């Protein structure tokens, strides 16, 4: 996930938190298994690998046991990587005077960026391979959002966020 933050980022103040929420989206990656299920899979994989290794050692094929252990370690590393994806999420909040983007990456690092909703534009860009990006463009750059969503969902999010921002701008004129 790519996140660029330009300029100082400050947490929302109390007055801002009291403003009504005009739009909110919580975006999380698809989770095919819970942390508990991933742990159980790791335990079962380790037990099967240990049993295979023990049988191979008893049969005199100790080399097979070594490779069985290497495969087990690689598989558990992949499972742990999947569990780290569970930490990822994006939260988009539109209030009367700010658009807040909260992002949490695979490592658990949280980043927040605040933008003036009157100074931004939400764009949906479709690449030649059919994939797409949704980004919030502002005077000093762009921030990609909705990186976990399917292409149709990205477009729908862009439309709904654009509609909420347009409605906010019309009401304040």
Distance between the termini: 36 Å
Number of DSSP-assigned strands: 7
Overall radius of gyration: 23 Å
Number of discrete helical segments:
4
How many structural domains does the protein architecture include? 2
Strand order of the largest sheet: 1-2-3-4
| Biggest beta sheet summary | 4 strands, antiparallel
Average pLDDT figure: 82
Write the layout of secondary structure elements.
Layout: H1 14-18, E1 21-27, H2 35-58, H3 62-85, E2 89-95, E3 98-104, E4 110-115, E5 121-126, E6 132-138, E7 141-145, H4 151-172
Antiparallel strand pairs: 1-2, 2-3, 3-4, 5-6, 6-7
Describe this structure as you would to a colleague.
- This protein has 173 residues and is α+β, with helices and mostly antiparallel strands.
- It has two domains: 51 residues; 85 residues.
- It is 43% helix and 26% strand.
- Strands 1-2-3-4 form a four-stranded antiparallel β-sheet, with helices on one face.
- A hairpin with a 5-residue loop joins β5 and β6.
- α2 packs antiparallel against α3.
- The N terminus is likely disordered.
Summarize the structure.
By secondary structure, this protein is of the alpha+beta class.
Descriptive terms for the model:
single chain; 173 residues; alpha+beta; 2 domains; 4-stranded antiparallel beta sheet; 4 helices; 7 strands; 43% helix
